[in-house]
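Hi there,

I know you've been waiting on this one. I reran it after we fixed the sequence typo, so this is the corrected version. Both the input and the resulting structure follow.
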Amino acid sequence: MRLFLLIMGVGVLAACGKKESGFTTGPECFLSDTTRLASCTHISKDASGRLVVSWVEQVPGSETGDLWYAVSDDGGVHFSKPVPVTTATGISPQPENMPKIVFRENGQAIAMYGTRSPDPRNKYAGKVWYVSSGDGGLSWQPPVPLVTDTAGYDQRYFDMALLPSGEVAAIWLDNRKDHQQEGSTLYIATAGNEGFERPRPLVQTVCQCCRTSLYTDAQGGLHAAFRDIINDTIRDMVHIWSKDGGETFTRPVRISADNWAVNGCPHTGPTMVSNRNGLHFAWFTMGGGQGVFYGKSINNGITFSPRESISAKPTAKHPQLAATSGGDLLLAWDEPEDTITNRIGFVRKAPGGETLASAFLTGKGEQSVFPVLCPVAEKATLVAYRKRVRGREMIVARRVSWK
């Protein structure tokens, strides 16, 4: 028997419906099965504009999980009973490599996810798969590997975006490269009704362990942001963009010269959106300071503003950025309260990037991490995250509004 909670907050969240620092937080909606472990939250919208929150669920003791999602047609106030993506199984639950679902206007849905695929050349290697549905998610086809080239034994940290043509673009990190330098290759492919085709490399020195970000702006430009490896040691965020649907891209330009020299895996990627004031970015670094930072570009990535520190603590990570229809910027992240608990931070900025209000969305003593967000109105957004409740990791969604 599957047990789950919808719109439950009594005895769990002291701040239900509480107004704090200019925000009103609604009750927490617990979406995942209370008897299982959940992670890898993601939010998208279907072809009719309904919110779709997805996540991975594991049986306790298992190393893999299955993909589930719930739908809201009232802006995140209520959710449907969760349903499985029936053919998306055996998923390796890595929150920075979370599965994602995109919905095309023609009714097709594509879910992409990663599995472990140990190889003698890399025992940590992974494989990216996708499954498709021709009826908006009612039924799903068998899984298809994103990469079929036998030279490609490691793929991970993917993202997808809808193109103005109605096709779907995907980027991912891949082991295939023509040099011996550190890093992975950023690949791109596009899919219509027949699956992803014409995979091609874009950049060959990308940090192997950080989430990538792919974004389509209102003018149809396709943007990618990722952590690059510069001069063999520096792992800073860069941006590239395409004005022809992903056929050609600009050369990488650093979003910020943080000069973070590290021979390791940060496991926290960039996030970006655009509005009438330009492109906006957020990321984590330990170069020249530590924590979550924000920056913008008013000329499509030719130059970037000086960075601005966002987080209260230098150990804050995992930022996610969104923009409302009016251009306001919404930024969420997680940061530790102490050695065992984390809180979700939240900032609202004006379209130009000026900070208007900030608050913590979760209470002291709670353990909440990996937020994602999606605006649901001009002055409201849905925020979803992973929360530990009575020893179980669960997926929580809640509305945040302001005046």
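Quick highlight: Residues 1-8+27-153 form a domain with the Neuraminidase fold (CATH 2.120.10.10).

Best,
R. S.
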